[in-house]
Amino acid sequence: MTETASSHDPLWAWGEDADRPRILHSMIRIRDVDASLRFYCDGLGMTLLDRHDFEQGRFSILFLSYAGYRDGPAALELTWNWDQAEAYSHGTGYGHVAIGVPDVQAMWERLKDFGGAPGSAPRAMLDGAPQLAFIKDPDGYSIELIQIRRP
Prior knowledge:
Elements: E1 25-30, H1 33-43, E2 47-54, E3 59-65, E4 75-81, E5 97-101, H2 104-112, E6 117-118, E7 123-124, E8 131-136, E9 142-147
């Protein structure tokens, strides 16, 4: 069963009894919630764990993952600032979010139908290594797809 914040105290969604550090989430800023959910949920198959709207601060945060908060892989936090009109600058420090997928070629092709802009085509960096590819999400963030199933 996928564990969500509703299984526990929502203020302690990440856990309250851990004995070692782990990566919890990465955050990116988005401009269009629907386009981002279509790309990450419908396209990549992630699940929306929670959405929190902060009226006073005029922003929303959405947590996506392939599992629950506590025992799954790290989540992706999408932050939507309601009044943001212009595109965000990705700066020179941002690299990419890496997502493991069973079939890189199929996912790279699929995401074009979900608002993804192709980056580098699927390829293996070394003979016998998994394939990898890059695609950009609707906000232009680079997503690396890495093969996690041997062909």
